[in-house]
From TrEMBL:
<feature type="domain" description="Aconitase A/isopropylmalate dehydratase small subunit swivel">
    <location>
        <begin position="652"/>
        <end position="780"/>
    </location>
</feature>
<keyword id="KW-0479">Metal-binding</keyword>
<dbReference type="GO" id="GO:0003994">
    <property type="term" value="F:aconitate hydratase activity"/>
</dbReference>
<dbReference type="InterPro" id="IPR006249">
    <property type="entry name" value="Aconitase/IRP2"/>
</dbReference>
<keyword id="KW-0411">Iron-sulfur</keyword>
<protein>
    <recommendedName>
        <fullName>Aconitate hydratase</fullName>
        <ecNumber>4.2.1.3</ecNumber>
    </recommendedName>
</protein>
<keyword id="KW-0408">Iron</keyword>
<dbReference type="InterPro" id="IPR015928">
    <property type="entry name" value="Aconitase/3IPM_dehydase_swvl"/>
</dbReference>
<feature type="domain" description="Aconitase/3-isopropylmalate dehydratase large subunit alpha/beta/alpha">
    <location>
        <begin position="66"/>
        <end position="530"/>
    </location>
</feature>
<keyword id="KW-0004">4Fe-4S</keyword>
<dbReference type="InterPro" id="IPR015931">
    <property type="entry name" value="Acnase/IPM_dHydase_lsu_aba_1/3"/>
</dbReference>
<dbReference type="InterPro" id="IPR000573">
    <property type="entry name" value="AconitaseA/IPMdHydase_ssu_swvl"/>
</dbReference>
<comment type="function">
    <text>Catalyzes the isomerization of citrate to isocitrate via cis-aconitate.</text>
</comment>
<dbReference type="InterPro" id="IPR001030">
    <property type="entry name" value="Acoase/IPM_deHydtase_lsu_aba"/>
</dbReference>
<dbReference type="Pfam" id="PF00694">
    <property type="entry name" value="Aconitase_C"/>
</dbReference>
<comment type="similarity">
    <text>Belongs to the aconitase/IPM isomerase family.</text>
</comment>
<keyword id="KW-0456">Lyase</keyword>
Amino acid sequence: MSALVRTRLAGREARVYGLPEFAGASGFDLAAVPFTGRVLLESLLRGGDTAAAAALGKRLAAGEEPGLEMPFRPARILVQDYTGIPLLVDLAALRDRVTEPAGVNPALPVDVVVDHSVQTDFAGRPDALARNEALERERNNERYAFLKWAEGAFHGLRVIPPGSGIVHQVNLERLATVVAHGTGDVFHPDTVIGTDSHTTMVNGLGVLGWGVGGLEAEALMLGLAQPVRIPAVVGVRLTGTPRPGVSPTDVVLALTERLRRENVRGLMLEFTGPSVAALSAPDRCTIANMAPEYGAMSAFFPVDGETLDYLRRTGRTEADTDLVAEYCRRQRLLRDGQEPRFGRVIEFDLAGVGPNLAGPSRPDQRISLAELPGSFAALHSGAPRTEAGVRDGDLVIASITSCTSTSNPRAMLAAGVLARRAVARGLSVPGHVKTSLAPGSRAVTRYLRAAGLLDDLERLGFHVTGYGCMTCNGGSGPLNEGVGAAVERAGLTVAAVLSGNRNFEARVHAQVRAGYLASPALVVALALVGHVRADLEREPLGTDADGKPVLLRDLWPDDEELRRLEAEFVTPDVFADDPAARTGWDAVPAPRADVFAWDPHSTYIRPPAYADAGPRSGPLTGVRVLLALGDDVSTDHISPVGAIPPASPAGRYLTEHGVPEREFNSYGSRRGNHEVMARGTFSNPRLRNRLVGDGDSGGTTLHLPTGERLPVYEAARRYAAEGTPLIVLAGRSYGMGSSRDWAAKGPWLLGVRAVLAESFERIHRANLCAMGILPLLLPEGRGWADLGLTGHEEFRLALEGVRETGTAHITAGGVSFTVRADVQSAGEWDVLLAGGTLPYLLRRLRAKEAR
């Protein structure tokens, strides 16, 4: 049965895979199927699997768990430069190893948005943007030349140049089409797979997508579908209306806490209920952005009139918007108020949300304003005030940054209005606070300037520092003069606040232990206070010129004023392309060739060491534990992104290769060099390795059985010389955070062949499989310490038949137990047992050439 039908859309001939016709012929009620499921149904139909589509439709319409595995091929792939360069390095390595290199090309359109390389070296001054962008070009010239080569060498690859904006905001404002024009005259839903976990942000526009590791994206780029075991689709039913003064950030932080508690890890969420209509498209995108923080695979808002209005407001043509409306209406993808059937529904009352923050170390640690001082108290070191005027609990970074809030005009306008009122009352920011504004796109700067609010933000030190994922991703640069040295001398526990989505320890800055997430307006308010010891509901932010206390409620913006400003200044013209960024990019020199000319002396771009890994076979014996870890270990703990310390193994490597310290750049920028990344793996100063005690281990471990304490990289080298395979022990939620494939590549390079954990975060679990590292689940409800393990034992992993049974038997000292392999599809097993994605792809390419 063919589901392809002819129709007309917005005055043009078109073909679509008719969902209403297929549902009618297959005997299920399409209106009962969640909208997420409808998009998946269309994907199955387009792939020709009508039997699976019928089975899926019937199960979803009945409110049952899908229980199916499907090959998912998105309309496009989206990557940022930190993940994109390693991905393209791998593809360049594949071209080296085949007889027809020009034949290795993306099978799907790929956009690379260069947004992660700019850093906040300069802040709080009018020339901060120009200086940071100049440093960015200087530091990353070699990386950008490689990207320019890739743009010319690979068909279907487009680079969005540096200075354009953050990947997810660019996706919302420019790249997302909601309805895609496929081959010929076939139209289908716009879907996207991204190598950044916050790819889910575009779910707020009715575009289904989620984040994967770069290794999974490589397979998609080379024509392999992503094997997806369709999880349950859970409804999040929204009721009530946000109270006056409650920001979109307040809502998403409250949702993050609730949904993490509801254990939605790996599930597909869909927002439904009467109050979806109360949320603007940017509000929905703010909520969808933080899906990785509450653990969901996706967080979908169906297309409706608000979606169409957003497309118009951001400069899409009327013809394109009409096509989206007609296609979605015809395919029953336009939300009409009728709620689908869900097997599980989580109720959430928007009216119950109040002003809040999250911290001091996880995005799901929601706290009220009054709870801020208490949340910090547990981290208090008791150090006295220093000669630099800094003390425990002082705020040293306040940054309006990242895509979560900077893509939301009302949130950004609120920060500007609060700044205006603070300036009018004569308030200022203390000198120890490093302030910065990193808009998600140039549109933000335009409407803030047009509204006259940019000047007020600048008067408080919130000058534009760049258009990229800066402070949120560890590109925070040095603290203000004298502050960093004072923190080190006195052992202070200082804090950062940002409008981003992640606040894991040492992610923002190695010297900052306490991190808080807040709305842009609260970032400004806390900067004025200068510390996190204050109850913002009752204590003043400061005193005005007359000596009168100024409270937060005195400065807080009025909702009606924000609506008026948005209507007046957030108009289609502010979203127009800026040709200046493209002009600068076009001037970057790059070679033209099918095969990349590797520079043997490069410290940025090197051919990967894992391309020729062999297949896995047999048991693992004589195994040692490289690290023994607890709960909530993030990919930032495993593979850091910030500054490279000179005394670290990675710093010493760069020094030995003639790189001066001022040119070290960051771990993230060095991801094209496996030598740097292997040395940086598990080197986060806040990592707690229980082999060496319960506190911060500073990236060290014990070599066993000698018991000598060494940097992790040095210990791994010694184990490799001895022929000793390695494992990692961990607790719950291992690998939470960014979709960082180097958090799997790095351990593989260190010799790690399996990770034993109580649970894995979705993307990192898949990344481990994609590197040939076996993710093993400890017995239900028991941690490794509960089993009587210390990590000092010698392990034996009996892996014979693990694919068939899904289990493996482990002995360690006098302890024996059975673990379950957390491998979720036949495709993942194929890749894992082949030794990883790159060897697997290489064998397929060679087999294809041999035919």
